[in-house]
Amino acid sequence: TMQIFMPLNFLGFVYREIRGALANIENLFTLLSKAPSVLDDKEAAPLNVNKGKIRFEQINFGYEPDRQILHNVSFDVPAGKKVAIVGPSGAGKSTVIKLLFRFYEANSGEIYIDGQPISKVNQASLREAIGIVPQDTVLFNDSIFENIRYGKPSASDDEVNDAIRHAHLSLFINSLPKGKDTQVGERGLKLSGGEKQRVAIARTILKGAPILLFDEATSSLDSQSEQAILSAFREIAIGHTSLVIAHRLSTIVDADSIIVLQDGRVVEQGEHHKLLAQKGPYYHLWNTQQKVNS
Ligand code: ATP
């Protein structure tokens, strides 16, 4: 019996590990990623988030030594503001996010949150401070209600219900055959991309992190679900510092500031109307997308 018991016990352990890690959904990334593990400093103190101001200062980075991806990237996300990153495919937008999470270490330069270099704080506290709405959300073979609770395993049913309301998911969940007990995931009901992103928004609301990241899905959703997601995100972003990776410029017209990345360099930064008036790279991106959409 011992031989049978051991592997089962081990599986249980792995399951609990994964389930625990998914309390912070982005940790899945850490678990699965082949990235060299970034180690904490011996004296690493917890990050102490006050207002959630983010600062990238002269960041240089490459995944491989002979191919530099980011070149002297500097920008600020003021506390409580919404900043968007746009740019062509391969410009380095996701790389910026991965560095902020410290999945990788910059080759030079430093990233600060409320004045604290993220290379000096412990990673658990860093990831605790950041809520992410990823492009593609992982759903487990569990009910939709429990899937949302993954955002904060200790959350009460009332808290989960609140998050559902704020993520504009109530109508959708009530329309399901078994309501909130409906099984989702690989062996259950399949959700659309937009529905999954709203589940991610609900999880992020539960997590209650001061800094929010939103990675807009590359594939476009129908405009109704896109509007639902955007308004849900706008609502939760109030009072939070947020960084949005946008593929459709129409979704970030209201951002406090837009950073245009090209070949790993910040080539322009400002708000929508100012960038349009400059008739530079942003203006060209905007016009290209308008043509595609018309
Ligand atoms: P997209 O809009 O297509 O998502 P992006 O602007 O987010 O693009 P990144 O994903 O940051 O671009 O990629 C920037 C560059 O880094 C690309 O040339 C890509 O090939 C390279 N890159 C990304 N991830 C890795 C990796 N794990 N190892 C090596 N190179 C990578």
Automatic annotation (TrEMBL):
Transmembrane segments: 1-15
Domain ABC transporter: 54-288
Subcellular location: Cell membrane
Domain of life: Bacteria
The name this protein goes by in its record: ATP-binding cassette, subfamily B, bacterial
